[in-house]
Amino acid sequence: MPKKKTYHHGDLKNALIKAGVEILAKDGVSGLSLRKVAGRAGVSHTAPYSHFTDKQSLIAAISTEGFRQLYERASAVAEEYKAKPSTQLIEVAWAYVQFALDDRDRFKVMFSGVLEKEKEYLEFVAESHRNFQLVKTVVEANQAAGVLRSGPSDLVALSAWSMIHGFIMLLLEGQISHTALEQKDLRGLVEFQLEQIMVN
Known about the structure:
The protein is an all-alpha fold. Helices cover 68% and strands 0% of the residues.
């Protein structure tokens, strides 16, 4: 009988999250269970319960970790280009696109709506809010520099985010036409999207 894996403190949770992402990508939320996650991670079927009470708490952990990683990537870019607001806007948007392309399965889970009663998961709420606040801060810097139109920064941030997020979803689903991709590369298309809301 094969020996079950043992993990150092902290590694098990990450291994279970990784297994959960893989199962969700292949079988969807209906195919996800803590028992399946344990099997894929190579641990006993009771091991996940030391970290997760149920399937929803695992989905929350997957999404929370995704938003944490997204913030780390986007905030580093925002800091690097904070002296050049228009460049900062483009680079943060491009970092968002790259994050989605680098971890498509997790990205889809983060925005799938499969997490029920999401407000009960305070860490998830905090991480997702932190990401939106970053977008808002970038938008405010661009409004102050005259790059973006004036207006409530949270609403302008929502418009910018919706534009890039919609582009990503079309990209991930293979719905961007070849004619568009022949005219510009992906980064060029991202820049073109943002130019539509910039002040000429």
